[in-house]
Amino acid sequence: MVKVNNITLKNYRNFKSLKANFENVNIIYGNNGTGKTNILESISLMGKGRGFRNANIINLIYKNENNFLVESEIEQNLNKYNLKIYSEYFENKYKKILNLDNENTKDTNKFIETSFSFLYFLPEMERLFLSSPTYRRNFLDKLIFSKNKNYNKLINSYKRNIIERSKILNLPTYDLNWIKTIENAIIKTGLEIYKLRNKQISLLNDELEHFNKYNNYPFSAKFEIEDNFYNNTIDEQKYAKSLEGTRNIDSQIGGAKIGPHKSDLYAIVNEQTNASQLSTGQQKTLILMTLFAQCKYLINQNIKPILLFDEICSHLDDINRKILLDLTKQFDAQFFFTGTEKSLFSFMSTNVNFYNISKL
C-alpha cells in the first residue's frame, strides 16, 4: 500500500493554495473553520469515490474558480509517483479525474484505487449507536471496503436493482419475466452483501476478543447484525418467494420491505449492555477499539491503511488516549489527526509531525 509524502492544494475548498510535507504520524491543528477537515478530505479523494464526505465535485472548488487540483507524491515499496486529482467539466457536470505520472488510463486508475485503503474517524461517530441504522450500515460497509475494493460496486448494483424493481411495480401492468429477472439480480447481490457483512462481523469479533486479552481496556464488545428477514437458512428460493410475496406492499410504499438495506448493526458490551446505553465517551472508546481491530486485520493481510482521524480530541479520556497511542506505536501505517490545539496531543510520542494550519 501507499504513503502520502506531500500534498499541494490549488483552488480546493477554502484553500487558494497550500503545500505540506507529511511523515508517518501527522497532527494538523488550528482553530475551527481553518480547513483541517478539508486537508483530510483531499487525502481521502486519492481513493475510490468522492472522499469521506461524498461531496459533489463542484463543492470542492474554491469560490469563483473553475477547477481544483490536488497534487501529491505518493510512495509504494520505495517507488515514488506523482498523483494529480482534479476536476473537469464534462457533459454538463463536474467529474473527478485521476492522473498518475501524467497518465490517465484504466490501468492507472485501477492501480490508484486499489493501492489506497482508508480508515476514518469522524466526530459524528461518537454517537454511532444512537444514530440511524443507515449510518451504522455505512460504517460497517466502509470497513468491508477498506479490504474489498469491489464492494462498492456490489452495493451500487444492489441499489440500482431495488430502484428498478420499484419502477416496474408502479407500472399499471408489467411482464412477470421482467420482474423475476430484476428480483434474481437483487437476490444474487443481496445474499453476497449478507455474506460479506457477516464475515466482517466475525473478523471484527475475533480481533476484538484477541485485542482484549492483551490490552487493559474497560470492556469487551461483540458486534451482531439485526435483520428480521435474514438468517443462515435463507437461500435463493426462499428469498425469491419472499420478494414475490412483498410485491404488493412494496408497490405502495416503495423500495423493498426485505433485504440487506434493512439490516442494523449493534454491539453488546461485557455480554450484557447494548452499546446504545454507553456514554458518548464510552461509545468513542468502542469505535476506536473497532478501528484498532480493523487496522490489525488489514495489516495482517499485508494492507497498510491510511488512518484519517478528524477532530479526535473531544471526550479524549485516558483510555482513548491510550488507544490512539497504542495505534501509532504498534502499526506501521500512516496517521493523520486533527484538533484545535497542539497541547491536546501532548500524550503522543515525540516522533510526531505537528502542523499549525495557520502557518501551512
What keywords describe this structure?
360 residues, five-stranded parallel sheet, single chain, 9 helices, globular, five-stranded antiparallel sheet, alpha/beta, Rossmann fold, Glutathione S-transferase Yfyf (Class Pi), Chain A, domain 2
Q: How does this structure look, described?
A:
This protein is an alpha/beta fold and 360 residues long. The chain folds into two domains: 1-117 and 304-360, Rossmann fold; 131-303, Glutathione S-transferase Yfyf (Class Pi), Chain A, domain 2, CATH 1.20.1050. The protein is 39% helix and 23% strand. The protein has helices at 36-44, 106-115, 133-145, 151-169, 176-214, 236-245, 247-253, 280-300, 318-330, and strands at 3-12, 15-21, 25-29, 69-76, 79-90, 93-100, 118-121, 221-226, 264-269, 273-274, 306-309, 334-339, 353-356. The strands form three sheets. Strands 2-1-4-5-6 form a five-stranded antiparallel beta sheet, covered by helices on one side. A five-stranded parallel beta sheet has the order 7-11-12-3-13, with helices on both faces. A hairpin with a 2-residue loop joins β1 (3-12) and β2 (15-21). The chain is globular, with a radius of gyration of 22 Å.
